[in-house]
Write a structure and sequence with these properties.
Radius of gyration: 24 Å
Membrane topology: Peripheral membrane protein
Strand order of the largest sheet: 6-7-8-3-9-10
CATH superfamily of the largest domain: P-loop containing nucleotide triphosphate hydrolases
Number of domains: 2
Number of strands: 14
Number of helices: 11
Shape: elongated
Strand content: 25-35%
Helix content: 25-40%
Family: Belongs to the ABC transporter superfamily. Drug exporter-1 (DrugE1) (TC 3.A.1.105) family.
GO molecular function: ATP binding; ATP hydrolysis activity
CATH class of the largest domain: Alpha Beta
Protein name: ABC-2 type transport system ATP-binding protein
Order of helices and strands: EEEHEEHEHHHEHEHEEHEHEEHEH
GO biological process, one term: daunorubicin transport
Bound molecules: adenosine-5'-triphosphate
């Protein structure tokens, strides 16, 4: 896709805090009107990325274009087209929901801040609580108001930093519905999350950030294809068969559960490979009780990628 169709273009982004390298060489692009999820564990560098993309901090190197504007050269243009909702809400608890929105509308120089506040309260089904102090709102209502605040200026691109962290399952599901609805309204959404399920539920494209690098990017289906459909789970008759199988299949990536005489073998999914595996086991008279082909889930992909990298780091 052409650069001009991209809502976000990031190239060669680097950032360190003192001696600590947080982002080493980050590249990605986000097409307009899509949901892009940056997935990573605690401390992977997600918030740092968002803070650079929104112009709150400067990178040590690299380029960031937001809706075609360079974040360093035209920060005011960038601020006009984006909104940011943080892990910690910017809402003032002592004021009512409506007052918060009206103040934000004035800050954004809207002609009719009150009208926009009422529209948003209605959209987020908060009209009933419009004149109550935010301190009386539930966590889910506060999060909704926080997102409403970020929509006051009709942004093209919304940044959501861990939008459901700390929410109960019910509020999390309503937040997901809200994010889907925002997408349907035509905005681009960049979100960070620690939850695989959240990325899978919401994102058109998922990028996995680990130790300051994007180690994989694609649709949930593409990422799952990384493990291919070639994972086969065997359950053997006894411990001896399991040990024999491990020896025979030592050149494959495997995972075993000894107590259950179980071995999962990761293959390239090709029929020839599967035939070789079965042939090897058969020739050595390994007693197979049952076997099944596994459909990988994203959790597998994430854990496999991270553990492969841990292996590499340990080898260094
Ligand atoms: N201002 C700072 N000074 C020094 N180190 C920092 C600073 N901000 C973040 N870090 C460190 O940089 C690393 C990445 O932090 P960041 O907040 O970007 O991660 P994250 O992926 O957003 O994690 P979380 O899910 O916990 O928010 C962490 O090890 C963190 O301790």
């Amino acid at each position: 896709m052409l650069k001009q169709n991209m809502s976000i273009c990031v190239s060669s982004l680097k950032k360190s805090y003192g001696n600590k390298k947080v982002l080493s060489q980050v590249n990605f692009s986000v097409p307009g009107k899509t949901v892009y999820a940056l997935l990573g564990s605690n401390g992977a560098g997600k918030t740092t990325t968002i803070r650079i993309l929104t112009g709150q901090i400067k990178a040590d190197g690299g380029e960031v274009l937001i809706e075609g504007h360079d974040v360093l050269k035209s920060p005011e243009k960038v601020r006009e087209v984006i909104s940011l909702t943080g892990q910690f809400s910017a809402v003032d608890d002592a004021l009512t929901g409506k007052e918060n929105l009206v103040i934000m509308g004035r800050l954004r120089h809207l002609a009719e801040p009150e009208k926009r506040a009422l529209e948003l309260l209605n959209y987020f089904e908060l009209s009933g609580a419009a004149n109550q102090a935010v301190s009386t709102y539930s966590g889910g209502m506060k999060r909704k108001l926080d997102i409403a605040m970020s929509l006051v200026g009709n942004p093209k691109l919304i940044f959501l930093d861990e939008p459901t962290t700390g929410l109960d399952p019910q509020s999390r599901h309503s937040m997901w519905e809200l994010i889907r609805e925002l997408k349907r309204s035509g905005v681009t959404i960049f979100l960070t999350t620690q939850y695989l399920e959240e990325a899978e539920q919401l994102a058109d494209i998922i990028a996995i950030l680990d130790r300051g690098e994007i180690i994989a990017e694609g649709t949930a289906e593409e990422l799952k294809a990384y493990l291919l459909d070639g994972a086969v789970k065997f359950i053997f008759e006894d411990a001896e068969s399991l040990e024999n199988a491990k020896q025979i299949l030592k050149h494959y990536k495997t995972a075993s559960v000894s107590e259950e005489h179980q071995l999962t073998v990761y293959t390239d999914g090709k029929a020839d490979t599967l035939a070789l595996i079965f042939h090897g086991l058969y020739e050595n008279q390994v007693k197979i009780r049952e076997f099944s082909q596994l459909a990988p889930d994203l959790e597998d992909v994430f854990l496999t990628m991270i553990s492969e990298r841990e292996g590499k780091f340990n080898e260094k």
